[in-house]
Write a structure and sequence with these properties.
By secondary structure, the chain is an alpha+beta fold. Helix content is 32%, strand content 10%. The protein is built from four helices and two strands. It has a two-stranded antiparallel ribbon. A hairpin with a 5-residue loop joins strand 1 (30-32) and strand 2 (38-40). It is globular and about 30 Å long. 8% of the residues are buried. The mean pLDDT is 77.
Length: 59
């Protein structure tokens, strides 16, 4: 689901990319939303990650 953080009115400090490049643990990107919703915010730059141009130590 794209832009879920915008739909619920929350700004995420970290996103999936931060986890994939080893910047933060997974627990830092899992966020709490309304009605017990848990979500992970997306981000930009995934094309570089999946093309192998940036290391992904957590994959």
């Amino acid at each position: 689901m794209g832009n879920v953080n915008i739909l619920i009115g929350k700004n995420a400090q970290y996103n999936l990319k931060d986890y994939l490049v080893g910047k933060v643990p997974l627990s830092d990107v899992i966020l709490d939303g309304p009605n017990n919703l848990k979500y992970i915010s997306g981000g930009s730059g995934y094309l570089l990650l999946f093309n192998g141009r940036q290391p992904c130590s957590n994959l």
